[in-house]
Amino acid sequence: MTCSRLRLWTAGTALILSLIGYPFLAAAQKTTVPQSVLVSSPDKAAIKNQLQMAARLARKALAGFEAAPRDESVPIDEDVRQAARNTYALIRAARHGLELLIVSQKFPDPVDQLNFNKLNDAFNMSRYPVDKESWAVPREEYLMHSTSELRRAIRMVDQVLVLMP
Predict the structure, then answer these.
(1) What is the C-alpha to C-alpha distance for residues 24 and 26, in angstroms, rounded to an integer?
(2) 5-37: burial string, b at 16+ Cβ within 10 Å, e else
(3) From the CA atom positions of the chain, what is the Rg in Å?
(4) What whole-number distance in Å separates Cα of residue 66 and Cα of residue 51?
(5) Structural domain boundaries in the chain
(6) Which residue, 154, 138, 156, is CA-closest to 61?
(7) For residue 132, what is the DSSP state?
(8) 3-state secondary structure (DSSP) of residue 135
(9) Are 39 and 90 in contact (CB under 8 A)?
(10) Residues 72-94: what's their mean pLDDT?
């Protein structure tokens, strides 16, 4: 009897803490693109716009990471890091918008599901430069993995853009 109460209390506490903490987690990542662009929408035109912006910013971030000095004495340009953060946020918003579109479809479109899978991969790849920037990863390793992951994310986003009407 007390074991089930403890489980119920633990689950309730976890739920309340996650609901209280959610707004703070969402505000933790600094983005410089307008909030209106980051709103998830099931509209394919809005998703395409988000992905086009993400591709542009990802290319900017990729060029910056490739040109960044390999020694630790010079910090990586903040504009490059911000472009990577904005790329991640835009891909995340487009991914969620596509998810909303798929859920609302009466007859699922297999191309939309394929695009979602590609966007999910791009989302995970675009996370590396954002997530690992605060870790104690050696600069050379960080730059090497960031450039390779961003290249792959750009490739996936470009593939989705080709398939979107």
Answers:
(1) 5
(2) eeeeeeeeeeeeeeeeeeeeeeeeeebebeeee
(3) 19
(4) 22
(5) 1-30, 31-163
(6) 154
(7) G
(8) coil
(9) no
(10) 93
pLDDT at 74: 86
pLDDT for residue 111 is more than 70 = yes
What's the rounded Cα separation, in Å, for the pair 41 and 28? Answer: 22
Euclidean distance between CA atoms 126 and 133, whole angstroms: 12
Mean pLDDT of 134-158: 92
> Which class does domain 31-163 fall in?
mainly alpha
Q: Which two tokens stand for residue 158?
A: 């470009």
pLDDT tens profile 9-60 = 554 554 454 445 434 333 456 888 889 899 999 999 999 999 999 999 999 9
CB atoms within 10 A of CB 156: 24
Alpha helices in the chain (DSSP H): 2-26, 44-67, 78-104, 110-131, 139-163
How far is CA 22 from each of CA 19, 28, 38, 61, rounded to the nearest angstrom?
5, 10, 17, 28
**Nearest-10 Cα torsion for 84, 90, 91, 94:** 180
| Cβ atoms 34, 59 nearer than 8 A | no
**Which amino acid is residue 100, in one-letter code?**
L
